[in-house]
């Protein structure tokens, strides 16, 4: 790469860091890349750090010493996330989203890349200290969210299938009961998808009683893997049965009336819990 | 936002532009945002433009005049994409990837956010001029690719389901025959997911004879929607039957032997077609 002046370096380093969250980048990488002195690189990083912090993009951690370097930790400030989620709540309250059975139509919302990316960033902020090795979800609507979270945490994503697909090789299947419908279903995960002892962050789009999440936890047990955290985008509180206790939700349906097409959606427990999970 | 010096502006504008591909941003937006003169903003943009170009990040289109502004078009240079795809081909040729039935295990690869993002960028480069309104895929493994493509094209993603899910509302279903297995299957898409006349970019992870892609095309016809392009990550040429002609592939299996566990994977037609689709 050609020698760059400070102005060019700042542009290049910004994109380089944004593309590599949670990765330790030695200062020598930048120094070699731009044919610049480490002292200049340090000054560049100080400028980037300040802007990232002021803009709520996240933290630039700099580590001194021979093994040192810089690491970009995406982190959305909670107040900023709250504003974003409140807007989504208002969108979810639109009457035409209510479907038979108390379901809520949100495929449009979960199909917008900017929205999905922002949700992923919030999850990545919530779980950034959980030392997860992998993000897991079950098909279908949770996949974009899990993927977006994986992008910001720099973690691979594994997808649990509702059937056993021929393209996964040998797989482990479990039966689970969806808490709200009481229907027995099957989910499976390819044997090669998860290493023994892996710490797994479970992400899903929707949770009512938690049967599907519980199913994923049971599946993890089969792999001798651990739960590093559970994040659901939207939870519904229209059931008394709760199979899962320890989870973080970003939004919550507190009331839904299929007849009058009225729903109340409020920010989830991430914003109301004061204990700071 | 506080007033920023050039160095701070360059960092901020870089992240702002990267986050908003294919969006026209008026210069006044930046001028107001940083309390800076438009002439300074133009100089900043010239610096960013040069780095983006040199680094193969894409093009910064600047439009003069009252309705003018700047637009970031992500575009991966073809030689750079070829190097990336060649590495993936070598990875796919690993013997332990070959599954019964001539399938290839690639969930690990399609679970790595950086890889998926790069594939999405290649697709976005291929189809950037196709004026698509939406990216469409069918569950499951194509979803991360469609989403990553949507990120770089700034387009919403719609997911065709293999069953009819209660959370989509009313849906249109079609039957299709998978060309290779000759099995009849169903796919469906929620009525609200696609507007009449929409131009749709179809993205999928794998294509053999093209039955699934053809199914999606048939579904589009039901919505009076148009095909803006078809992109498949990996095609297999172990069949003589071809239901779909006009598509772009990034990689291609030219030979697979389940017994000896040998596969040959080469770059797809995007790299071999000289006509420059």
Describe the structure.
The structure is a homodimer of 277-residue chains. With 277 residues, chain A is α/β, with parallel strands linked by helices. Chain A has 8 helices and 13 strands. Chain A has a 6-stranded mixed beta sheet with strand order 7-6-10-11-12-13, sandwiched between helices. Chain A is globular and about 65 Å long. The mean pLDDT of chain A is 93. At the A-B interface, α1, α3, β5, α5 and α6 of A face α1, α3, β5, α5 and α6 of B.
List the helices and strands and how they pair.
The structure is a homodimer of 277-residue chains.
Chain A: H1 6-18, E1 24-25, H2 27-34, H3 38-54, E2 58-63, E3 69-74, H4 78-92, E4 98-99, E5 103-104, H5 113-126, E6 134-138, H6 142-153, E7 157-160, E8 171-177, E9 184-190, E10 199-207, H7 211-222, E11 226-236, E12 248-257, E13 262-267, H8 269-272
Parallel strand pairs in A: 6-7, 6-10, 10-11, 11-12
Antiparallel strand pairs in A: 1-3, 2-3, 4-5, 8-9, 12-13
Helix pairs in contact in A: 1-3, 2-3, 5-6
In summary, what is this structure?
The structure is a homodimer of 277-residue chains. Chain A has 8 helices and 13 strands. With 277 residues, the first copy, chain A, is an alpha/beta fold.
Number of helices of chain A: 8
On the 0 to 100 scale, the average pLDDT of chain A is 93
How helix-rich are the residues of chain A, as a percent range? 25-40%
**How are strands sequenced across the largest beta sheet of chain A?**
7-6-10-11-12-13
Most extensive contact? A-B, 61 and 61 residues
Radius of gyration of chain A: 21 Å
Number of domains of chain A: 2
What is the N-to-C succession of helices and strands of chain A? HEHHEEHEEHEHEEEEHEEEH
How can the largest sheet of chain A be summarized?
6 strands, mixed
- Level-1 CATH class name of the largest domain in chain A: Alpha Beta
Number of strands of chain A: 13
What's the quaternary structure here?
homodimer
Computed structural class of chain A: alpha/beta
Unreliable residue runs of chain A: none
Form type of chain A: globular
Question: At the third CATH level, what is the topology name of the largest domain in chain A?
Answer: Rossmann fold
Cα-to-Cα separation, first versus last residue of chain A:
43 Å
Fraction in beta strands of chain A: 25-35%
CATH architecture descriptor name of the largest domain in chain A: 3-Layer(aba) Sandwich
């Amino acid at each position: 790469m050609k020698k760059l002046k400070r102005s060019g370096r700042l542009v290049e380093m910004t994109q380089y860091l944004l593309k590599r969250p949670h990765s330790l980048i030695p200062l020598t990488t930048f120094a070699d890349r731009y044919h610049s002195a480490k002292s200049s690189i340090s000054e560049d990083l100080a400028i980037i750090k300040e802007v990232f912090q002021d803009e709520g993009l996240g933290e630039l951690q700099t580590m001194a010493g021979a093994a040192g370097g810089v690491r970009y930790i995406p982190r959305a400030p909670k107040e900023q996330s709250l504003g974003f989620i409140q807007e989504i709540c208002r969108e979810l309250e639109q009457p035409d989203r209510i479907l038979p059975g108390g379901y809520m139509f949100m495929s449009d919302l979960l199909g917008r890349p900017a929205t999905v990316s922002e949700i992923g960033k919030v999850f990545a902020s919530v779980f950034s200290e959980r030392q997860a090795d992998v993000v897991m979800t079950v098909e279908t609507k949770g996949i974009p969210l899990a993927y977006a979270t994986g992008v910001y945490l720099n973690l691979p994503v594994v997808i649990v299938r509702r059937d056993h697909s021929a393209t996964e090789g040998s797989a482990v299947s479990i039966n689970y009961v969806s808490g709200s419908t009481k229907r027995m279903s099957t989910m499976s995960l390819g044997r090669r998808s998860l290493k023994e002892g892996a710490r797994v962050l479970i992400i899903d789009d929707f949770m009512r009683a938690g049967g599907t999440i519980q199913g994923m936890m049971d599946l993890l047990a089969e792999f001798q893997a651990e739960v590093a955290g559970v994040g659901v985008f939207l939870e519904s509180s229209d059931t008394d049965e709760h199979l899962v206790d320890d989870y973080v939700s970003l939004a919550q349906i507190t009331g839904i009336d299929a007849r009058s097409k009225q729903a109340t959606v409020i920010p989830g427990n991430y914003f109301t819990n004061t204990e700071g999970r």
